[in-house]
Amino acid sequence: MGLSVAAIIEALGGELHGDPDRLITRLAPLEHAGSSELSFLVNPRLAPLLASTQAGCVIVAPALAEAARQRGQGSKSGGDCIVTNDPHLYFARLTQLWRRAHGGAAVPGVHPSAVVEPGALIDPSASVGALCFIGRGARIGAGTVLKPRATVGEDCVVGARCIIQSGAVIGGDGFGFAPHDGAWEKIEQLGAVRIGDDVEIGANTCIDRGALDDTVIEDGVKLDNLIQIGHNCHIGKHTAMAGCVGVAGSARIGAYCTIGGAGMILGHLTIADHVHISSASIVTRSILKPGHYTGFFPLDENANWEKNAATLKRIHELRERVRRLEAGSHDAGQA
Fold this sequence. Notes:
By secondary structure, the chain is α/β, with parallel strands linked by helices. It has three domains: about 5-100, Udp-n-acetylmuramoylalanyl-d-glutamate--2,6- Diaminopimelate Ligase, Chain: A, domain 1 (3-Layer(aba) Sandwich), CATH 3.40.1390.10; about 110-295, UDP N-Acetylglucosamine Acyltransferase, domain 1 (3 Solenoid), CATH 2.160.10; about 300-335. It is about 20% helix and about 25% strand. The chain contains five helices and 36 strands. The strands form six sheets. A ten-stranded parallel sheet has the order 8-11-14-17-22-25-28-31-34-36, with no helix packed on it. A nine-stranded parallel sheet has the order 9-12-15-18-23-26-29-32-35, with no helix packed on it. The protein has an eight-stranded parallel sheet with strand order 10-13-16-21-24-27-30-33, with no helix packed on it. The longest helix is centred in the C-terminal third of the chain and has 20 residues, at about 315-335. The radius of gyration is 26 Å and the shape is flat. The chain starts with a strand and ends with a helix.
């Protein structure tokens, strides 16, 4: 099975240079694509790959159209290309088209092995996979897909067109305990989780219910696998987080933010809109100004790392010494 280039153009647009009847049997990376396969090029630094790729057709930006047309002269692959202003977006929509055309779309309905407690409301167009659990009072919106073994706890709300990947837990108890006589007394978590529309939550990601108010995930948020969102957090619309990010309780993250893999945000902090956190950074203070922020100690041989870490601990002493020396030089200059 496959799609003709003409069918792709009809569905998604773009400017075709080449054979509209070429049958595409697979989407593939530039390096590995063959003459019946379609690929795309986003990063201009990878443009030299155009000269060697055997892809039957390539999606490119206008600036690379000529290079794409000139490639593969005299070979079976030829120089077929689809020119579009945003090749990455075009490719994303092509993958969706491919999924629909090849029968991979989720089927509405509840799998017989899923457990749905009384009082839960599931839109008829939603898809609930095998061995899922949906607690009492939960609500699942139109077109939402729960992959196998996903869990949505009691009273939690998941909006429309969301994707909850396998093993994700929405509405587990937040981490709340009161110390008493050397032990811990549990604080019951009485809030829930509210998830907006068009949200994707990765495999084995956990979003804790609020202690009193709800934990909130706004529209369009994208969470990768193995992310922890603590209780009472609020994540703004269209923010994206890569794998293994941890967000401690009551943090408030703005809209259109990105957090790189293994980034950590401490509790009760506020992150403004349009803030971008580098991978492995630890955010220990609120960030109130948009921008790109990085905070981690570079990897080194252990012996060197220990020396640098020891020096880092004494920076305040060195700073005071420099201040005293500068003050002494100033006084000497005045004399």
